[in-house]
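Objective 1b: paired records.
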Amino acid sequence: MTIKEKISYLKGLAEGMDAQSNELGKLVVVIIDTLVDMADEIEELNENALDLAEELDELSDDLADVELVLEELEDELDFDSYDDFDSDDDDMYNYSDDDDDDEDGMCCDMCGEQGLSVDIACPKCGTEIELDELDIENEAVTCPDCKENIELEIDVVETNDDF
């Protein structure tokens, strides 16, 4: 027997006893009416809980799909080479100085890629200037000797990956 069925039974008993005829009976009728309201609220809460459980199941399934995709990406990208990654390590990025001649020609220890550098002569004083990628992107550099601002004109930049 459900809660609503039990309350309906109590309501029928109270009506059969003509509970409205005395003050105690009136109290019983008010209590039964309150029980009816409570049963309605409980039923609504149960329906909401079932709806939330269904939505939670759907979210759980979606999360499982996302985890599967991330695992596949991790396998494809091979993150194993970064197992010893320490974000507090000050030497995490070891970029080469423009003034130093980097023996292996790498731009940093982290990426392992060859850094781009180009040497030009200052048109005013003839000093040789080494340009890095940032200078080339900005299309400007200042001569360290004569302080001449040199604007670079770059028409086409081709890369050759056959090193």
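Objective 1b, second protein:
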Amino acid sequence: MEENKKHTRTRIARRPSEGHAEKVDYSTSRSFDSDERPARRYSQDRSNANRPRRTDGDHKPFGERKAYGEHKSYRKPYGSKPAGRSGYGKPSFGGPKPAGRKPFNKHSEAEAGMSAMLSRKPQVNGRYSDDDTVKTEIQEVVRLNKFIANSGVCSRREADTLIQSGVVTVNGEVVTELGTKVNILKDDIRFNGERLKGEEKVYIVMNKPKGYVTTASDPHAEKTVMDLLKGCPTRVFPVGRLDKNTTGVLMFTNDGEMAEHLTHPSYNKKKIYQVVLDAPLKEEDQQKILAGIELSDGVVAADELEYIDAHDHRQLGIEIHSGKNRIVRRIFESLGYEVRALDRVYFAGLTKKGLKKSDWRYLTEGEVNILKMGAYV
């Protein structure tokens, strides 16, 4: 069989006049295995010249088309009820919106009320629970060589040599015995007649998140507030306490004198909390809290108590100077309310302004001076 044998195509054509089929041979025109196929001539094969034109009934000029909005739409107008279905349809994106409806933010009014309450207060900027009377865990008594080393004079081993050489005095007396302990807050410690200041004092404010225990160390706690201060090279301690589920302003320092000044009951430092209850607070209960509530450890009265949301009396702002353990929660629990959320927004002039949850910052020198002067109660 020849390799280049041409294939023959045959079609049957029927003559309308004679009514019988006729064979037509195209064998002289193409070969399937030929590389030189003739190019198609679209001008002849696909010409639009002989195509039938549409009639006016089949096609409308552009100007006669239906106007926008006249076409059939499957969207239902807002508020209409589709047939065979329960409920109401959702509004279309381009449809009319109900008159008088405004975006709803359940926190906006409460936040505005809380801000109004804070605006009336002086501000610096900005295992126990909620107990600001707990003594801050600052180590006041340390070894003399450690104190000298923390002052930046030398290392601990070199400090021992200085002590034995008789150039270190404590409260005016020369100390040569190794292992001597000193009180960093009360003792006057000098090297060659120059008083040593110890390590640099650090002051920090944090916006405490929920779920962290306020303690410097607790082997039973999964998370403590110290876990959030890993970027701080200085060893500091929390000033006062906030409950594990209480959020808000929390201060840290290594200045024991400052911590004592901020937490001792005699200084009456103000605290403001934003409270969310399980039920609206009755007006008669509000007056009771302002007049004074009898608790197991004495009578406690709020300095101020406000509804921060005119439409939701579960949300309150309370100012109090008592730092007793869980004092805010116990006040409301004594009247049959449950505190669902508690956030401290103000402490002795400090606020959490500009701090997100878990964030902290160092206080400026000006802020520290204001706290030391006791300008803000």
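The radius of gyration is 43 Å. The first strand starts at residue 10 and ends at 14.
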